[in-house]
Amino acid sequence: MSNPSLLILPGDGIGPEVMDQVTRIIDWFAAKRDLPFDVETDLVGGAAYDAHGTPLHDDTMAKALAADAVLLGAVGGPKYDDLDFAVKPERGLLRLRKEMDLFSNLRPAQCFDALADFSSLKPELVAGLDIMIVRELTSGVYFGEPRGIIEEGNERVGINTQRYTESEIDRVARSAFELARRRNNKVCSMEKANVMESGILWREVVQKVHDTDYPDVELSHMYADNGAMQLVRAPKQFDVIVTDNLFGDILSDCAAMLTGSLGMLPSASLGAPMANGRPKAMYEPVHGSAPDITGQGKANPIACILSFAMALRYSFDQGDEATRLEDAIEKVLADGARTADLMGPEGGTPISTTEMGDAILAALDASL
Ligand code: IPM
Ligand code: MG
Fold it and tell me: Is 249 in the pocket of ligand 1 (CB under 6 A)?
C-alpha cells in the first residue's frame, strides 16, 4: 500500500520559511511514529506566476485534486500588487478552494494559556478561549456573478454579487452542527438578515437543517455586526460560529487577534468526501505572506505547524498524533519560547523561525 500523499505549496513571503519547519515535523513523524507521507512540493501564488505566468498551473491544480491533502503556506506580496486581477497571487488560492470545492473552512481561535497576556483584550476574557469559526468558502460575494467594473453613463461602477443557494447553505450548516456535536454543542449563525435577502435565506436554511437533523444542538442567530462586537466583548460565549465567505473572512481575523497573535492560528478547508471516505482538504495558516518580515527568520511557524496537526486529525485519522503535536507546542510556549510576534510589552529576546522548529522537535522527542 502506498503512503498517504501530501501536496505542499509553500507559496510566497514567509510561506516557504514556515513550511520548512513543517517539513521537519513531517520527517519526524515518519522517523519516530512510523507515519510516512509521500510529499510533493509545487508552486502557488506569486511564485507560480514568476515561473509560469499564472498563479496556479493546471498541473498543480491536477496534483491538488489527486492528493490526500494539500498544505499551503501563504500567497501574495507587494511585488505583485500591480498585476492584472486575473493573475494576482490570490487568484491561485481562490481557484484551489473553488475547484477542490472546499466549502467548509474551519478557523479555530484558541488561546494558549501561556499567551493570554498577549491578547489585546484583558487576559480573563480570553484565557481558555476555544472557538471555531466555520466560514463558507466557495460561494458568496467572492464568486457571485455578475461582477466586474463597468461603464455607466460617464462613470465606472464596481459590481460584486452576494449569492447563496439553499444547498450551499445547507451543507456548510451541517458541517458546523457536526463539529459542534464533537465540541460544546453550540452553534451561532451570523448573517445580515436585517438588510440582505441572502441573509434571510441563510437564517431560514440553517434553522431548517437544525430542526430537521440537529435539534440536540443549541442554535442561535446573530447579525454579523453584533457578532463582531460580541467577539470582542465576551468571546467565550461562543462555541461554533457559522457564517458566509465575506463575514467569515472578517470575523476570523478579529477572532484570531483575540488569541494574541495571527502567527498562532491554523485552518482547515474541507470539501466533500473522497473515495477513501476522508474529505478533500487543504490546510493553511490564517496569517498571510507577511512581506515586512520575509527572509529575516522572524516568522512564527506555529500556525503552519498547527495546520499540519489539523491535517493529521481531519485527513489522516491521527487524532492522537495531532494532540501530541499540539501538546508539544503548548509545552514549548509554556517554557517561554517566543518568536518576535509573541514579544509582550516587557520585551525579551525572540527566537528565530528555525529555533522555534528546534524547540518543537525537542518537545516531540520528549513526548515519546
Ligand atoms: C483569507 C485571506 C484570503 C481571503 C485572501 C488571501 C484571498 O484573507 O484566507 O482569509 O480573503 O479569503
Ligand atoms: Mg482573510
Answer: yes
**Residue 105: per-residue pLDDT:** 97
**Residue 98 annotated among the catalytic residues of the structure:** no
pLDDT of 289: 96
Residue 345 forms part of a structural domain: yes
Q: How many CA atoms lie within 13 A of 238 on its CB side?
A: 34
Is this structure's pTM higher than 0.85? yes
Pair (205, 269) in one structural domain: no
**Predicted pLDDT of residue 171:** 97
pLDDT digit string (tens) for 253-301? 899 888 877 788 999 999 988 888 889 999 999 889 999 999 999 999 9
CA-nearest residue for atom 10, ligand 1, is 249
Last residue of a domain, one of 199, 232, 257: 257
CB neighbour class for 292 (10 Å; exposed up to 12, middle 13-18, buried from 19):
exposed
Q: Are 53 and 161 in a shared domain?
A: no
119 occurs within a structural domain: no
301-353 pLDDT, tens digit each: 999 999 999 999 999 999 999 999 999 999 999 999 999 988 876 778 999 99
Is 93 a pocket residue for ligand 1 (Cβ < 6 Å)?
A: yes
Q: What percent of the chain has pLDDT over 70?
A: 99
Domain-located, residue 268? yes
- Cβ of 258 closer than 6 Å to ligand 1, yes or no, is no
pLDDT average, residue stretch 52-76: 97
Check pLDDT > 90 for residue 154.
yes
Phi, psi of 261 (to 5 degrees): -155, 135
Side chain identity at 303, as an amino acid letter? Answer: A
Residue 292's pLDDT is what?
A: 96
Q: Which residue has the cell 498541473?
A: 59
286 and 358 co-located in one domain: yes
For 108, 259, 334, the CA distances from 138, given in Å and listed in that order, are: 19, 26, 37
Q: Are residues 242 and 320 in the same domain?
A: no
| Residue 224's CATH number | 3.40.718.10
Domain that holds residue 146: 130-257
Q: How far apart are CA 292 and CA 299, in angstroms?
A: 10
Q: For the chain, how many structural domains are there in total? A: 2
